[in-house]
Amino acid sequence: MSAAPRRGRVVTLTANPSLDRTLALPGALARGEVARLGASVTEPGGKGVNVARALAAAGADVVAVVPADAGDPLVAALSALALPLVTVPTGAPVRTNYSLTEPDGTTTKLNEPGTTLDAAVRAALTGALVAAAEGAAWVVLSGSLPPGTPEDWYADLVRAVRGTGARVAVDTSEAPLRALLAAGPDAAPDLLKPNAEELAQVTGTSEAELLADPAALSAAVARLHDGGVAEVLLTLGGDGAVLSTAAGEVWSARAPQIAVRSTVGAGDSSLAGHLLADLAGAPAADRLRRAVATGSAAAALPGSAVPTPDRVDPAAVAVTPGLPGVPGSPEPVPAAGRDVP
User: Which segments constitute the Carbohydrate kinase PfkB domain (predicted)?
Assistant: First the structure.
């Protein structure tokens, strides 16, 4: 018997939002030479903003919390998308990030550091997040932290949100990720979305070994569960993804063949796809299927564009029990259908 559908609001926090400017190169990037660019696109960005945009494109109830002044171009861009917002003023402009995309989809990112958030702004953001999280199904903490922010701030935010009843998903890297996992089980998120590079950063196993050795990958993911993380959504780019639960379920998904246009925000769309399937009450295999389908659809779009539901094809994603690369793995599990909202 399938689980009853769960509906609810998703709240995202983007501590270091950005305006994402994507510049299309005519060929491979050549250092020291002049490149005559194709069409350029500027979109509101930051990982949490990307997740919120992907959720909103699928009709989900979502609120984006961002540190930004009311007159900032980021706020204007998000308001133009009719995305519900909670803003906390900082007195400084939101940063701009640049992505250089080559015709084969290779993407080079140039990210500005962002605005320093003082203690008062961080306290206001925490209060705004907790208020928005009351009654929500999920809270998403996503992206880098601005300069000067304590590395363990995400751990503090997870603890602050716990009393609202919302589950917490985190997608970050480097020092903030290490600090989160070192903070103890009470700060462990319900869902963590690393990629292979980020998993290597926190487990001490090289990325190459993780991708080549299923035993090393299994041990690395198990360390996250041992630290209190309930679910791990490990994204592997064009190689698909893995979803592992603390209850012992492990699923692998192969990404469908697509023409990659830009990988900017594809992982954020994957996280949105997982949340959409979870809100619909989907089991683990179908949560992973929707995650990979949504991320792949995003990678087929220019810039940091997010896919609409008509572009997302879960039935094209092959999902198999166990880790990728394990000899004798069972046949892929058929898709349950294409009607996950």
Answer: 31-310
Of 156, 160, 154, which is closest to residue 141 (Cα–Cα)?
Answer: 154
Calpha distance 34→22 (Å, rounded):
17
Q: Residue 312 falls within a domain, yes or no?
A: yes
Catalytic residue among 268, 278, 313, 339: 268
Say whether pLDDT at 335 is over 50: no
339 is catalytic: no
Q: Tally helices (H) and strands (E) across the chain.
A: 10, 14
> For residues 64 and 49, is the Cβ–Cβ distance under 8 A?
yes
Asked if 304 and 192 touch (Cβ cutoff 8 Å), the reply is no
What is the rounded CA–CA span in Å between residue 275 and residue 162?
18
Q: Is residue 232 part of a domain?
A: yes
Q: Assess contact for 237 and 270: CB atoms under 8 A.
A: no
Share of the chain above pLDDT 90, in %: 79
Q: For the residues 327-334, what does the mean pLDDT come to?
A: 48
Max Cα separation, the chain?
61
CB 83 within 8 A of CB 62: yes
Q: For residue 296, what are the domain limits?
A: 10-321
Rg for the chain, CA atoms, rounded: 19
The predicted-structure confidence for 134-168, as pLDDT tens digits, reads as follows: 999 999 999 999 999 999 999 999 999 999 999 99
**Nearest CA to 11 among 163, 139, 134?**
139
pLDDT(3) > 70: no
Share of the chain residues as helix, strand and coil, in percent rounded to the nearest 5: 35, 20, 45
Report the candidate in 117, 177, 179 with the shortest Cα–Cα distance to residue 147. 117
Q: How many domains are contained in the chain?
A: 1
Q: How far apart are CA 295 and CA 102, in angstroms?
A: 19
Q: What is the pTM of this model?
A: 0.89
Residue 63 lies in a domain: yes
What amino acid occupies position 46? G
Domain for residue 339, yes or no? Answer: no
**Confidence check: pLDDT of 2 > 60:** no
